[in-house]
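=== RUN LOG ===
request id: a7f3
mode: sequence -> structure
chains: 1
length: 302
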Amino acid sequence: MSAPAGPSSEQARSGALAAALCYFLWGLVPVYWKQLAAVDALELIAHRHVWSLALLVIIMGRSAGFHDLAALLRERRAVATHLLSGTLLTLNWLVYVWGVNAGHVIETSLGYFLVPLVNVAAGRLVLREHLRRLQWVAIGLAAAGVAILFLQAGRPPWIALVLAATWGGYSLMRKRSPLGAVPGLAAETLLLAPLAVGFLIWRHIAGSGALGRADLPTHLLILSSGIVTAVPLLLFGYGARRVRLTTLGLLQYLAPTVQLVIGVWVYHEPFARQRLPGFVCIWAALALYTADNLLSARRAPA
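=== RESULT ===
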């Protein structure tokens, strides 16, 4: 019996384009959140939950994804898993939005540069995966980079560390989920939606909610948070099925790179020379990690 055919070159090109566009849009997201800096970060995340869920329900209605979601909600263990992953994702979103609007776009980009290395470490510590020599060196270099940034700033780069840890934990939880990207995100947002809706109602009654009080552009931006969340995710899902994992791994650095450029050149955040050695260590770790992946892919049987 012959093996199933892989994606054609045309599919691979379209998949790579979709994945690259996804990561580029994720890199531009700080510009979107900056326009909402006057709105409380926790309220923004609550709106993101509500409007993302509304859009995901529409998408699943067109793709018959409700069956998988209903089956998951009947299993207590699966509900607990997605509640935990949804909580990690919410914390990641909250720290990211707060960091961007507080003028820490560069540090948020650092967090997502660290994510691949956190995933490797989690694979070793949690899943007991074997690490190759270059992977150990990469993790050591990344740790040295974080230590340099800590010594230079007098504090740990906690925004970056929380972002990397929560996204790494979220990735680990999603790895154990049988659901695809859209039903999985729908399950996570649905489980936390009662808290989000309750919080928004409380803010409105207290007279501090943005809806009904902000100007028209702010209303439109808040209501579009579902699109900002779902469109890159759909592009990612399309691309991930059509390109090699190593290609996807290389493209993922596009998002934090765009964020870093925006932080330095658009919002003129200070990037002191003293911070450069820490970033260089982390970038060198990523280069080693990427080279190891490419070498491993070449050695693997077709």
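=== NOTES ===
The two ends are 16 Å apart (CA to CA).
The chain has a mean pLDDT of 84.
=== END ===
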